Amino acid sequence: MRVDIWSDVVCPWCYLGKRRFEKALAGFERRADVEIAHRSFQLDPARPRGDTASRRTMLMSKYHLSEEQVRAMDHRMEQTAAADGLEYHLTAAGLTGNTRDAHRLVHLAGTHAAADRMLERLYKAYFTEQRSIFDVDSLVALAAEEGLDAIDVRQALEGTLYTDDVERDLREARTLGVTGVPFFVIDGRYGVSGAQATDVFSRALTMAADSATAS
User: Fold this and answer.
1) Which residues have CB under 8 Å from 140's CB, separation 6+?
2) Which among 69, 72, 140, 164 is placed 20 to 30 Å from 171, CA to CA?
3) Over the range 47-80, which residues count as b (16 or more CB within 10 Å of their CB) and which as e?
4) What are phi and psi of 180, to 5 degrees?
């Protein structure tokens, strides 16, 4: 059974959805038969590569909120994440930017069977450690921490490798009508939108497995 997961590395709900799905998968009897494919999605694809801006200011503009409202929203998100064992630091000042290179890095890591591990590292770097994931030097350093060859990563990111993989993911998301992430497609037939509760993912996995057995 294959599970495709569209997400963006600056999306706090995506990291939370990943963790909740993992908890559901851990309790799934046929978990050894499940293949996970991490797919690229960009919440702000129009932002120029390398350009960064205040995350708080972006949210204020996007949702027409005051600074205090954004702070309160981020505080609630920190509490929600903490309930699932994740440490977020959103109320401090932080940056956002174009995530295309980060997605390219995840695809590169996938050629070494390390896509999930690399994505997890990017999430932690951004949401917990408040490190940049928007420039080549930062991405190379994070990749090296996960055992990838720094020279190979730099050459890939300074060139155009894996750009087509990201574009393919984005096109497929548009074809499916995906407008927000995380978005999970289980066994090519069941879609789950958002960071649903763990039991929702558990039911979806069981339903997909039962349907595959019956067909």
Assistant:
1) 150, 153, 154, 157
2) 140
3) beeeeeeebbebbbeeeeeeeeebeeebeebbee
4) -145, 155
Q: Parallel, antiparallel, or unpaired for β 35-40 and 2-7?
A: parallel
Q: Using omega within 30 degrees of 0 as the cis cutoff, is the peptide bond preceding 182 cis?
A: yes
**Taking a C-beta distance cutoff of 8 angstroms, is the pair 189, 208 a contact?**
yes
> Region 189-202: what's the mean pLDDT?
97
Of 67, 73, 57, 68, give the one whose Cα is nearest residue 13. Answer: 73
Q: How far is CA 79 from CA 44, 132, 166, 192, in A?
A: 25, 23, 32, 23
Provide the residue ranges of all domains of the chain, joining segments of one domain with +. 53-95, 97-161
Q: How many whole angstroms separate alpha carbon 196 and alpha carbon 181?
A: 11
Residue 93 has a pLDDT of 67
End-to-end Cα separation, the chain, in angstroms: 14
pLDDT digits 0-9 by tens, 9-66 = 999 999 999 999 999 999 999 999 999 999 999 999 999 998 999 999 999 999 999 9
Say how far apart CA 88 and CA 167 lie, in whole Å.
29
Q: Which residue is listed with tokens 């996995």? A: 205
Task: Give the ranges where 34-190 is alpha helix by DSSP (H).
Answer: 55-63, 67-83, 100-110, 115-123, 136-145, 150-158, 163-176
Strand 95-97, strand 190-193: pairing: unpaired
Query: How confident is the model over 82-131, as pLDDT tens digits?
Result: 999 999 999 776 899 999 999 999 999 999 999 999 999 999 999 999 99
